[in-house]
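Re: the 500-residue chain
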Amino acid sequence: MTHDSDGDRTRTEAPNIDRISTGVPGLNEILHGGLIPQRSYLVRGDPGTGKSILGLHYLTEGLAAGGTALFINLEEQTADIKQNAATLGFDLDGIEFLDLSPKSDFFTGDQGYDVFEASAVERDPIIEAISERVASVEPDRVFVDPISQFRELSSDDFQFRKHALSFMRLMGEHGATVLFTTQATASEPDDDLQFLSDGTIELGYASTGRSIAVPKFRGSPTHSGNHGMTITDEGLVVHPQLSPGEYAQEFVSEPISSGIPELDELLNGGLDRGTVTVISGPTGVGKTTTGTQFMKEAAGRGEHSVMYLFEESEATFARRSEAINIPVAQMAERGTLTVEEIEPLAVSPQEFAQRVRRQVEEEDADIVMIDGIAGYKLGIQGDEDDLVTHLHSLGRYLKNMGVTVVLIDEVASITGEFQATNVGISYLADNIVFLRHIEINGEMRKVIGVLKMRTSDFERTLREFEITRNGIKVGGPLTELRGILRGTPEWKDESPDSGC
């Protein structure tokens, strides 16, 4: 285990093995620090998944570290590679190129690559060119794009595997670490290269967008699973899948007050720190406002809260809050509140989890609120099982770090039969607070109650809930009403026409 400067945060680390950076921080995290030197790694994936971009990161990182780098391009010409790299901000000055891509005289002169003969590999011009360039450059890093072109130069699969293995050994003898891509097809799969390589990095697509995985990595564990990835104007950005069990931070379990005595009475003092609370209810009932009230009170203690808006604009949220005496603009100016507006379809759950991590680990967030679960689910683009999996991972991480979590869940029914949550997330919650519209004598009113608290006792009555220009107002227990959860309450021992 390692400890940070304050001595209370721990994270499990991989064995102490020398590594070299891939140039992509998120990928380095998946690989527990980076690639193991003097080995060969296969990068596979469909066209357009970012294989060549990963190679550019890898080579330029080597130059930045003071090493030498060699790009062996067997398909795309060097001028095209440099032009495409420039659009992503890569400076390839200092990288050596060995351009073995087909030239125009392949057609004009009726010439082509000679087919390798098993007894004359050393005389083949391609192999000679590679050997000579490696000997003269002595590169620390080599990127081959794509190595599957060697297959076209071999008489059969056996010869191809022999050539590929000989190439990898040649690189190892010169102390180089090799990254190579492949163009696998149904008729020519790359299974043999997966066996020959020391590791495999797979780029592809998942329901949440681009993905990256490392199914094989000799000599070291990796973070398993499909991780998120995006291609930006600056290259690849990798968002590792959150592994909550690797994180922990000591904290004092104590009630967090809402600042409203009646609401705190319902909650036996408030929400316990380091727990997950679901605030559920139909539209317009005050779910977001209730969650924000805890953040307002936390701001008075100097604590930092973060709100992620999946279903409402930041401007609308700020305007509504200011109108009911929750000074979110002032809280933001003082650094006690951060509001991030999230476009669900533009952010994968892995990327979102990394954003939350930065707020927790770099900005010391004490409260994290997600508004709301339906918008978060839209970003996952999966079913309820996917939603529960990602929320469970994120919630467990935040709890381990002592962060108080508030999830806003909108239920469909305005009145009628009571519904605790809209999706199957009840078991994830330590606390469930619900709000409800009710009708009394033709007037719409609101009530608030607590359905569940794992860590403490709570009041089992319902109370009237009102949002005023001065903020939230919670009344006394509604002990004289029955049928509240049906939405049409009646006074005890009186007719339904009785007033409130």
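The chain has 14 helices and 25 strands.
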